Amino acid sequence: MMNRNKRNRAALLLLCILITAGILTGCGGKKEGQAGTDGTGTKELVIGTGQSCGTLDSLQGYDGWYTVRFGIGQTLTKLNDDFSVSGWLAEDDYTVNEDHTVWTFTVRSGVTFSNGTELTAELAKASLEYTCENGIRAAEYFTPVSIEADGQTLTIITENPEPILPNKLADPYFTIIDTTADLTDIADKGPVGTGPFVLSSFNPTTKETVVVKNENYWGGEVLLDQITFMYTEDQSTLTMGLQSGDFDAVYNVSMTNIDEFSDNDSYSIVRTASGRTTHGFMNQNGVLKDETLRQAILRYINKESYCEHLLNGEYVAGKTLLTSASDYGYDELTDINSYNPESAVQLLDEAGYLDVDGDGFRETPSGEKINLRFVYYTGRPEQKIVAEATQMELAQLGIRVTPEVHDTQTVIDMLGKGDYDILCMSINALNCGDPENHMNTYFKTGGSYNASGYSSAEFDAVLDELTVTADPEQRMELVKEAEQILLDDSVCIYYCYPVMNFVTKSNVSGITSTPADFYWVSEKTDIQ
Amino acid sequence: MVKLIAFVKKNPAFSVFALLAAGLIATAVCAPLLAAQDPYTAVMSEALQPPGPEHWFGTDWLGRDLYSRILYGARTSLTAVFCLTGVIMAAGAFLGITAGWCGGVIDAVIMRISDIMISFPGMVLAMAAAGIMGASMKNAVAAIAIVSWTKYARLARSLTLQIRNQDYIAAARVTGSRTPHILWRYVLPNAIPAVLITGATDIGTMMMEIAGLSFLGFGAVPPAAEWGSMLSEGRVYMTTAPWLMLFPGLAIFIAVMILNLLGDSLRDVLDPREE
Fold it and tell me: Structural domain tally of chain B?
């Protein structure tokens, strides 16, 4: 027995030493020279992100965003921080005829693709036609009757008026790529673009992407030699990676951890109120077909409290589809389903949603059990909190919710297929500086991501009118009208409007966080 | 009573740890009485409160009382671990005794399956199994059971091989006992103590493995109070609300330590040869 005790004591001592050693190792210093300027003078940057693409084919889903985010591709026009649009690969002098059916752009001279080919109107035309022919979402933006090219002059002719065509062309879906290059392996090798960086490697499994300096860049010298985009949806990995020095910059640091960086001189933070809205899509093909149930859910969710207490005040509570940071009627519109828990309970009681079997959860009036599948992803920090808070709150209302977590790409696919009861997704509704496309894609009958079963003739008619209306004030009114219809039809939960951020080490410059949310790096991005 | 005192005097370590383990079980059983509030009720305005008189262990990101969740977590964790250990002991002993007694093809098949299981790293295989079956506490238990029964089967088999050649088995045969009777009356009672001791020393490890699977998201699903998943969920708040990791971590540490030491001392009691 004595021997055993001695042995135990020795083991305990060893264990203590090991634990202490482990803790001290954790506190250990940074790895020197991993990022930044190394001995050979190459400048490298590592960016951590919870968002990445499944392929580099810009026509797959929303993968085109990453062509622009990674600095590989550019568009004819560019969205500014005030949601206005100016030229990028096209000059600022674009014009339109009175009917808004003939747009004329001058393609900037001296622009070359990364393979050295010069960008002409002819190649811009080929690129746009490639997108319109192969992209399933293209028709939701515009359908050209013809595109004509003459020298550097590009003319786009449409059948219906397209008053905001320059806005639409700023969407990464219309990234200008060299269609004369080999496109067969575009998913893995990426397109040939005009951006300051060229793809070096892309791993479809880990989604780690490396881009290197475009030696043929048309817009001046590219300051960095290489950028590595590291993908993980784990929020603590992103934060700790930045603290440990593994990342030089992180896209969208969690609201929980942002304070640790804001009071620290070693880091700088770029913040923007984006055009994003955290949507909770409600699928009307299942039990949520019943408007009363949807209304009760909407009325029971205390979004103000989510934002104030759970999201650290970094988000603005949602009310309507479009963010309070825009002028689209956040203060004017009437939400018939604003927070009112008593009325939610009353609605369900009166409609016959009662807990008959005594399991603590209500059944439908016909006696079926309700179990709402709440699909979400963790690539954005608010998602998990919103999902679990909804589950918690609705349980108090007597509605059973089962959260179901997947990676972002899978959730996007599930949204398109309608494979959910409630699906939480943060979407930039103003990615063109105008919500028309967003409404078309997600809420109009037949929209490519409208699998929720929502179909309203009234809403469709307003959108049809919006598409051909040029007057900005009239457009504004039509958008508000459409928003009000969505509110009145109790279509979607608008949880919150995120404030986006990019946290970088203080020696990093030229990384941007913009309302568009797809301009991350440029030729000016640098590390000292 | 006198016997009990004598036993305690003879086995002080076991008595102390048994008492602590009983305390642990009592905590789990009486969780509703001990808890300050419902572990599933969220008071959003009280999210991420540090430990204090109001909330002894603080609150989590939804404003749920952590102390109450830890208490209820004991229920989840202990139930799962006892089920798991029970299942693997029963399955392992059954398969091991069958293999050892029958021999031949049956022995070969059972033991080769067990060899296959052993040739994989246990936790990785459990993760794969839990991943395929989907996240739930039941599946986590099943996944670990799938990879952990082999040890018991091998032990039971080797004991059976020893026992079947004993004189009392031959005597039983001569007196006309049938095989099921022999297995039940002579083999099982002689094999079971060793299996039990192994099980008792394994409980701590099993608890760690269940917590591990939950930590990785293969076990308990939200909002269930389970220590492993609470630890995992608290990770994001490690720097801002360290109590979210500290208390579930401590709970796992204490429970595993008690169960491990109890297992060790149980071995000393039942298997006094070592002294």
Answer: 1
CA distance A15 to chain B (A): 13
Q: Which residue bears the tokens 């169960």?
A: B259
For residue B262, the enclosing domain spans 13-24+64-274
* Coil vs helix vs strand at A335: coil
Q: With an 8 Å Cβ cutoff, is B240 touching chain A?
A: yes
User: Which residue ranges make up each domain of chain A?
Assistant: 74-188, 276-497
Q: Classify domain A276-497 at the CATH class level.
A: alpha beta
Distance of CA A277 to CAs A107, A382, A406, A499, Å? Answer: 34, 11, 20, 10
Look at the pTM and tell me if it is higher than 0.80. yes
Closest-CA distance of chain B to residue A222, Å = 36
- The tens-digit pLDDT sequence of chain B (275 residues) is 788 888 888 888 899 999 999 999 999 999 899 888 888 888 888 888 999 998 999 999 899 999 999 999 999 999 999 999 999 999 999 999 999 999 899 999 999 999 998 888 888 888 888 888 888 899 999 999 998 999 999 999 999 999 988 899 999 989 988 989 999 999 999 888 889 889 988 999 999 999 999 988 888 888 889 999 999 888 888 888 999 999 999 999 999 999 999 988 888 887 666 54
The reply to whether B17 falls in a domain is yes
CB within 8 Å: A256 and B237: yes
Give me the amino acid identity at A453: G
**ipTM score assigned to the predicted complex:** 0.80
| B118, part of any domain | yes
| Chain A 307-326, residues with CB within 8 Å of chain B CB atoms | 309-310
Q: Bridge partners of A155?
A: A104, A148
What number of other Cβ atoms are within 10 A of residue B188's Cβ?
Answer: 18
CATH number of the domain to which B256 belongs: 1.10.3720.10
- CATH code of A74-188, in short, is 3.40.190.10
In 10 A of CB B43, how many CB atoms? 16
